[in-house]
Hints:
The complex is a heterodimer of chains A (381) and B (221).
Chain A: H1 2-15, E1 26-30, E2 39-43, H2 46-55, E3 61-66, H3 73-78, H4 84-93, E4 104-107, H5 117-124, E5 127-130, H6 138-143, H7 159-177, H8 188-204, H9 206-209, H10 232-251, H11 256-274, E6 295-298, H12 308-312, E7 319-321, E8 326-328, H13 340-344, E9 350-353, E10 359-360, H14 362-367, E11 368-370, E12 376-379
Parallel strand pairs in A: 2-3, 2-4, 4-5
Antiparallel strand pairs in A: 1-3, 6-9, 7-8, 9-10, 11-12
Chain B: H1 17-24, H2 29-37, E1 45-49, H3 55-62, E2 66-71, H4 74-86, E3 93-97, E4 113-117, H5 125-138, E5 144-150, H6 156-177, H7 187-193, E6 197-203, E7 209-215
Parallel strand pairs in B: 1-2, 1-4, 2-3, 4-5
Antiparallel strand pairs in B: 5-7, 6-7
Amino acid sequence: MNHLRYILINVLQTLLRVLPFPCRTGLTKIGNPDRNSPVLLTGNFRLTVERLRRAIEGMDAYLLVANSRGVNVWCAATGGMLTNHDVVSVLKTSGIEDLVDHRTVILPQLAATGIEGRAIQHKAGWKVIWGPAYASAIPAFVRNRFKKTREMGAVAFEWPQRLEMAVAWAFPISLFALLLFPFWRDGVLPVIGLVWTLSMVIFLAFPLYERRLRTEGKNIGFIFFDFGPRALPLIFWGIFLAVLFGYALLIGGLSWASLLRWSAISLVVVVLLSIDLMGSTPTYKSGLHEDRLLRIILDPHLCKGAGFCEQVCPVEVFEVDDIRHMATLPRAHQCVQCGACIVQCPFDALCFQSPSGDVVLPESVRSFKLNLLGHRLVKSG
Amino acid sequence: MSTYVLMRILESAPRRYDLGMWLLTFGSLGHAYDRLASRIHDGQRALDLGCGTGALTLRAAGRGAHVSAIDVNAQMLEIARESAQAAGLAEKIDFREMGIAELGGEASASYDVVMSGLCFSELSEDEIHYALKQIKRILRPGGPLLIADEVKPPDVLRRMLHALSRAPLVALAYVITQQTTHAVENLPEKVTHAGFSIESLRLNTLRSFVELVARAPGQAA
Lengths: 381, 221
């Protein structure tokens, strides 16, 4: 029964992944925790909470669910919907302080874009430990005495996630396809079929073409009008057209009119699906966001090698040189501009720099969060 | 990484918050605030919980009170600060970016009056419980707690009517401010349960909006 419920929630939430789904906030006991059991915290996106609970089944721990407005931890923290206030609030009002003797809370690593470890310590008296990027690694992380291996902190875009994203895009677009019904009754099902097929192909084949997405600096605004390597929608469309025309030749029954019609429809579908293709992956910055062009800059005079950057970076940009007591950036090209390292650095040694040389200071990365289009406008506490 | 789920639209929404909330409360919010603020006197130390754009704060400061106004939303506070400047009341108001979870740091019995407009409806059950406990502590004995907020109507019929009448307004207010509120269940009971005694209670016809004056336990000095 529990199993069935879990599957149903996963299916429903994946179909409607683009919408927020809030669940109850507050404290839950996992297993039989005692006064020394670990305290884990996450946001109140229902899918996250369900998966986290399944991942830590069998552990003895306390789970705190903070108000992230029903949005997943990474997006909520980056967009100013999961803030220091929300974390302080659940620590202070849930009653957890009466249940444990320690004051250490494990936060999801991806919350580091919006939650400041030092602010939580200062305002609530709780020490923040940055946990793994994915809930599935939590049991190993706890067994490992809260030490993260490199893999635990890295995000990836494996096939289950690619499948999820394919569904998350195909379903809402299919709903729009239903609007065709009054005008073109026979076309609705084939259009929906086309949407799902193209979505699956585009997302599942991601590793085959992802190398083409790595371009240094050469990006002009809206993805579709950029005829550099980012003209992916056009390439997808071209492949689809080749298949379509091949098929027409083979069966010989398709008219020019219907070929033309399906070419146009497939173009629209491909553009819709790939409009935020990179933003749908955890390993690339959205092609729609202005700040994808920002570079991360380290001031070697300020850096003391504290290593918070290495702990919170989801794409393994940093390595701390223990001999020189300084961070290095051997994989700077993998940066997704999430800003977590800048937010956490206790010495303000990191900042963003735009191609024109403008600097985005740590203070503004901390207090201004990203809006839907990647503008740092949303002021948050 | 993706932010397409973020429901943030280009502009910052707090500038339009007042309009959205005015719509949600059928325009009755201002009158409720006026009536509550009439209980505040010159020279009192007042605390406004979730001051937002400063509607209650400015009324209290206008009546001569020294107001501490707290909110978790920095953008709202900025607007409130501007309004206070414009009204010449900035010196009487101490705006602070903090949540009710940090009320533990306020000294006991340090306020003559505590007020809150449309704040409880944004809090979780745990937070409401915690807030009431802290308010009781930081309010002087016998001091008034003033609340104006949305509540869930007590009976099924009114709940349905309320939901129906609100649906278009909720949608409109959401478009304007990307915010909505969640009506509180049994707010007067919660206030009583926390140890306050209710002095006056005013509900609208649908029993969906409450204006409440409660007293902290103990005798006024």
